[in-house]
Write a structure and sequence with these properties.
The chain is α/β, with parallel strands linked by helices and 244 residues long. It is built from 8 helices and 7 strands; from the N terminus they run βαβαβαβαβααβααβ.
Length: 244
């Protein structure tokens, strides 16, 4: 039986890699995007070309009505949603005192509230069926904090706390909630880092390399499988061993 997955922020980077990997292990995937329609459709087309099922859907995850429309579309196309990957996120590098109220609010809306809103919508479908899995994408900065990314770090720390709490809340309904916490990954979000900074971070990583979106996607795929059916409320670091 086909299982339905929604991956938020799946037009590029970690989200795109997760969508492709989940399709490879049998999920029909709703590829969520907010701005880059062309890139999201290319991800969906790639999945279909490889024999999977996918479609792209535009929704701002910070807007409850748009999230509801996303879940309704996925359920109508493929059946009730059994997996949600809360991946969508935005970054802001700079001093806290230089951030505007709008900057701070948008970080909170997308990086924290978006995951909460999507998880609430997922629970509406998963609780009645007494099964399902939610996988949140956090960040190592949510564990240790990052200078000049204070609000982003706070959001990701919130995601980690949210994961642990929601796992307890939804566990009696047979729903698992876990979190993948990436280290330094070569994505567009980290494109603002200079090559010197990336080299320093590489040197500080025991495996002596920067991670790839596929490294994170493999971890997400593991947590989505039946083989991990007794794992919930956990934070899985995918960081090459870095302990900054």
């Amino acid at each position: 039986m086909t299982k339905t997955a929604i991956v938020t922020g799946a037009s590029r980077g970690i989200g795109a890699a997760c969508a492709v990997e989940l399709a490879r292990i049998g999920y029909a995937v709703a590829v969520n995007y907010r701005v880059n329609k062309n890139a999201a459709e290319k991800v969906a087309e790639r999945i279909v070309s490889e024999g999977g099922q996918a479609f792209a859907f535009c929704a701002d995850i910070s807007v409850p009505e748009e999230v509801s429309a996303l879940f309704d579309a996925a359920a109508k196309r493929f059946g009730s949603v059994s997996l949600l990957v809360n991946n969508a996120g935005i970054s802001h590098i700079g001093l806290l005192q230089d951030m505007t109220d709008a900057d701070i609010r948008r970080q909170l809306e997308v990086n924290l509230m978006g995951a909460i809103i999507c998880s609430r919508e997922a629970a509406k479908q998963m609780v009645p069926q007494k099964s399902g899995s939610i996988i949140n994408i956090a960040s190592m900065w949510g564990e240790v904090g990052a200078s000049c990314e204070a609000v982003y770090s706070a959001c990701k720390a919130g995601i980690i706390g949210f994961t642990k709490a929601l796992a307890k809340e939804l566990g009696p309904s047979g729903i698992r909630v876990n979190c993948v916490s990436p280290g330094v990954i070569r994505t567009d979000m980290n494109s603002e880092l200079t090559e010197d900074t990336l080299r320093e971070l590489t040197d500080e990583t025991p495996l002596l390399r920067i991670g790839s979106p596929e490294d994170v996607a493999k971890a997400v795929a593991f947590l989505s499988r039946d083989e991990s059916s007794f794992i919930t409320g956990q934070i899985l670091p995918v960081n090459g061993g870095i302990t900054v």
